[in-house]
Amino acid sequence: MTRYDSLADAVGGTPLVGLPRLSPRWDAAPGQPAVRLWAKLEDRNPTGSIKDRAALMMIAAAEADGRLTPGCTILEPTSGNTGISLAMIAKLKGYGLICVMPENTSAERRQLLEMFGARIIFSPAAGGSNQAVAMAKQLAAENPEWVMLYQYGNPANAQAHYEGTGPELLADLPTITHFVAGLGTTGTLMGAGRFLREKAPGIQVIAAEPRYGELVYGLRNIDEGFVPELYDDSVLTSRFSVSSYDALRRTRDLVEHEGIFAGISSGAILHAALAAGERALKAGERADVVFIVCDGGWKYLSTGAYSGSLQQSAEKLEGQLWA
Amino acid sequence: MAVEVKIPTILRTYTGGAKTVPGEGDNLAALLDDLESRHTGLKNRLVTEDGSLHRFVNVYVNDEDVRFTGSLDTALTDGDAVTILPAVAGGSAEPGTGGSPACGLAGGSPAPGLADPVR
Fold this sequence. Notes:
The complex is a heterodimer. By secondary structure, chain A is α/β, with parallel strands linked by helices. Helix content of chain A is 39%, strand content 18%. Chain A has nine helices and ten strands. In chain A, the strands form two sheets. A six-stranded mixed sheet of chain A has the order 1-2-10-7-8-9. Chain A has a four-stranded parallel sheet with strand order 5-4-3-6, sandwiched between helices. In chain A, α1 (51-64) crosses α2, α7 (244-258) packs across α8 (264-283) and α7 (244-258) crosses α9 (310-317). Chain A is globular, with a radius of gyration of 19 Å. The two termini of chain A are 32 Å apart. Chain B is 13% helix and 24% strand. In chain B, strands 1, 2, 3, 4, 5 and 6 form a six-stranded mixed sheet that branches. The chains are: A alpha/beta, B alpha+beta. Chains A and B meet through α4, β8, β9, α7 and α8 of A and β3, β4, β5 and β6 of B.
């Protein structure tokens, strides 16, 4: 069924596609089990990113518990995609939206947010996501009439993936052995990871986290660090830190070898998925490795990620939040 | 085992400003003891009194988080790259800025822990 009563109803149900060219071994042979990679194309959601799932569920949960009523204004710290998803659903449902976001995010994200009618409050680039979160918390305290959904600590964020992403993956690929996703709010990994661990015993749940230049954060000491309230490391089996360079390289591999035009964080996730696949190959084990394509590449064209030398592009990305 | 340790900016006061320092040890605990012998005070910033890693500190061996490989018992071999990073919203901050070799620009080779099957 591909007919829906509204755009919000069209969230989820995204395709899972094989990567026969990038997989370590797509076809099995005697004594050589297949090690296959599969991409979950979350760019096929209505606003073009996986964040539609969390935004829809967080708004539904806030409506159900009475915090969100018609005419309310939603406040959220976001580096882009969550804001764009919230803006679309807020528009459909008649809510206002204020996004607090670092000023060093891509121009396309700002333009999309403004197009959907969201108001943007910029936090200083030097303070990174940490300061956007801190500023949003302060604004929420000063403006109790605004409703902060707070994706980093809202259980509905993870629940969207426990009820949606996880079951979709298991239904499409019952032989799944690895699930690889990005670690930001941690909602995708916590939700889908928990579901898959319950239903697919022995599955590996692998996190790929972006590694930015330190200036992006402006940390003065270790105690200013931040771990999302949703994060529970017992759900994961391993966690990789991926540089801008490797993320870019894999993003280009995706489009060059498989025709998938993805955003940069998806390249970082593919990098970790390939590492998991190579380990399985060396161990002589069958593997079906699923990784998340979080969004398409459209919003990152202005970053120069897709043209010129990799080194030049990586240098341009320094100082930007690309995930 | 001789390894290279990348130090984040906020901890370079303990290394005389050095971005990377050499160290030795069969596992991470031994490495941190070795570093402490030359960079007094560094270990206390990374490990709590009960002997576990500080909540806002992430340590990676060849880009893999040691909390999933045995924490301080994680074994080290010659040539491993150990990276210390502060935990931040949306990812981890990298030692060095502006296209430093730490972000993988030097030579463009993959990190040892992450295979490179694409040829």
